[in-house]
Amino acid sequence: MKKVYVLDTNVLLQDPNAVFAFEDNEVIIPAVVLEEIDSKKRNADELGRNARTVSRLLDALRTKGRLHDGVELENGGSLKVELNHKSFQKLQDVFGEITNDNRILAVALNYYLEEQQLEQPRPVILVSKDTLVRIKADVLGLSAEDYLTDRVVTSNELYPGYLTMHVHPGVIDNFYNARYLPVTDLNTNYTFQPHEFVILKDELGTSKSALLKASADGKRLDPLYLSNEPIWGIGARNVQQRMALELLLNDEIPLVTLTGKAGTGKTLLALAAGLMKIEDERKYKKLLIARPVVPMGKDIGYLPGEKDEKLRPWMQPVYDNLEFLFNTKKPGDIEKILAGMGSIQVEALTYIRGRSIPGQFIIIDEAQNLSKHEVKTIVSRVGEGSKIVLMGDPGQIDHPYLDAYSNGLTYVVERFKNQSISGHINLERGERSQLAQLAADLL
């Protein structure tokens, strides 16, 4: 049986092509949704771009007929801009205030009541990214769903970049003797991703173990290329950090993604690896560090000064790590060091569109606050001979329309995990301090 889906504004602002995601069912866009989209179309951010995309899409559909009468979609469904079901009378006793959310609820409720008068009523479902709107719909007896089509993964299991296998001790001995291990020796049906790490442990319970990395084709396991010696005074404190350094310092892997909770060392490891490649090995011309300008909590408004002065509060976490790496003693020393070196550039992602960035080591911090479109724009800027590192915590998202399963960082991890030019690792253990680790786990 066909269904009726009533879309909230946030669904279209998250995915402008959402109208095509409901197969052969009827899609309803309340008139108030058009008003909210119109109010966003002049924004210079991702929401503004999506609002303009929705406007152009609906304008193109007008060529098929009048939208308030309904037009056919290529997937067999239909789209209708609803003008006649906005009566607020049914909601008056429950939600007295006539807000935009309540007007959308009224459209869904009136459609539902109208369908109940028919011999074979169609299910009416309100689709919204807003939790409270879905709760309100439930209070009214309406079916409500989150919009999940844009999610990169549907389960709670994100690709970690490594796995632990218990094997016969003879397999571990064979690896140490030959310095490599064919995947066929593991007697498993598991398909290894390129550059996926493997921790082999003795199934008999002894302390015998080995740390390996899958080859680019995933058919053999090799030892780690790098030793565990510190770089720029930073050494791996746990096995996942050692895996991260292996990826960061491998010139044959131009795309590296790092995920993990606060304090796991993502930014510090990436900066140390970048400095080694820039200053010691001269592999790249410049170290470019950027992060999205998305505030945590209430925005403090416009900041005084020139561009660098405006960016300093947003980039302070990066400067904190650079001060630690350079072991600066006085405030302002890090600016003098960076000015003298000239090979380190810190900036916001606002200025990256239209650029081509060859021969650079690029670090994008807090990438979980990027949308899929924004992360595509960034990665597609990478020029010949460059390496890009995307890192962040999918559990700490400040963007209003993203979650752990639909953000740009998760998108890159899942899309590139089977590509030979990329590598990923999820850092699990906090190394900032015991207090920071407890806060990440308990709070």
Automatic annotation (TrEMBL):
Q: Single GO cellular component annotation?
A: cytosol
Give residue ranges for domain PIN.
3-135
Q: Which GO terms describe its molecular function?
A: ATP binding
Do you know which PANTHER family this protein is assigned to? PIN DOMAIN-CONTAINING PROTEIN, PROTEIN PHOH
* CDD domains, per the entry: PIN_VapC_PhoHL-ATPase
The name of this protein is PhoH family protein
Query: What protein family does this chain belong to?
Result: In the N-terminal section; belongs to the PINc/VapC protein family.
Among InterPro entries, the record links this protein to: P-loop_NTPase, PhoH, PhoH2-like, PIN-like_dom_sf, PIN_dom
